[in-house]
Amino acid sequence: AGSSSAAAMAALAALPPLRDVIAAHGLEARKALGQNFLFDLNLTGRIARAAGDLTTGTVIEVGPGPGGLTRALLAAGARRVIAIERDPRCRDVLAAIAAACPGRLEVIEGDALEVDAARLGDGPRRIVANLPYNVATPLLLGWLRDATAFTCLVLMFQKEVVDRLAARPGTKDYGRLSVITQWRAVVTPQFEVHPRAFVPPPAVTSTVVRLDPRPEPLAPARLETLERVTAAAFGQRRKMLRASLKPLGDPLALCAEAGLDPTARAETIPVEGFAALARAVDERARAPSPPAAGNATVARA
Ligand code: SAM
């Protein structure tokens, strides 16, 4: 392995600099594709290292673009990288990287929203990506549905999104995204990245975050019900639960069953409290008339 990895390092090092690659292939960034490229090798190396040991299983990269982070993942020893890129202009550039590391990089040309990443390659699976910001949140929510398929996710978002992912109850950033994400994963912000690190620079500061999926959700609940409960509660975040939960049934009964104060507001309720509310909503839906067969099982994955 030593000499083959040395050969791979030499082959990676022999690839032309990213700036030259972009110029030679006319890969000017397209805003519609959320393209903000990273050329700084220290930075791409740091992102790759935040995902830990990459020498087993599969690294899934969304949006490799010209391949800066892809090169860093391979240089960090990734056994196998499966990269999903929508922009066909990147095909030849990525093929050159694959040729430098035979058998270690596979490129899927297509829309990552339509790929089931939980079924790609062998486990342990790690997702590492400098995400296209226009689809970053829907991608994350899709992966969280199958969270246990992944060992960890190291993702670059706008800083403001990471603030919401990591927010604690009682803060202004705490909302639906915080509850759903923290219910399924431990969220650990890693470091901020200045707009100048990208070409072209985005309008806002970015943050790399690491998500470690929990083996079991923080508390039992059905995801669909948790989504409904958080939508109702945070849809009217300044109102008390006794008002905001009305669309879901008798709010006082739901709060009593969940052990919550009906005069509290959504932003003070911990994740476990929303899970308890979701269970209460499902209980009450079940109580009056028995459910049809196969309905309403408690999601554990
Ligand atoms: N990884 C590269 C880097 O760090 O320099 C590029 C990151 S850039 C922020 C986002 C990349 O995602 C672009 O290459 C873009 O073409 C690609 N992309 C945008 N939407 C996508 C989608 N729906 N599925 C897959 N890739 C997408």
From TrEMBL:
SMART domains: rADc (SM00650). GO terms for cellular component: cytosol. GO terms for molecular function: 16S rRNA (adenine(1518)-N(6)/adenine(1519)-N(6))-dimethyltransferase activity; RNA binding. It is found in: Cytoplasm. Signal peptide: none annotated. InterPro entries: KsgA/Erm, rRNA_Ade_diMease-like_C, rRNA_Ade_Mease_Trfase_CS, rRNA_Ade_methylase_Trfase_N, rRNA_adenine_dimethylase, SAM-dependent_MTases_sf. S-adenosyl-L-methionine binds at residues 36, 38, 63, 85, 111, 130. Belongs to the class I-like SAM-binding methyltransferase superfamily. rRNA adenine N(6)-methyltransferase family. RsmA subfamily. Specifically dimethylates two adjacent adenosines (A1518 and A1519) in the loop of a conserved hairpin near the 3'-end of 16S rRNA in the 30S particle. May play a critical role in biogenesis of 30S subunits. PANTHER family: DIMETHYLADENOSINE TRANSFERASE, DIMETHYLADENOSINE TRANSFERASE-RELATED. This is Ribosomal RNA small subunit methyltransferase A. It comes from Pararhodospirillum oryzae. The lineage of its organism: Bacteria, Pseudomonadati, Pseudomonadota, Alphaproteobacteria, Rhodospirillales. The gene is rsmA.
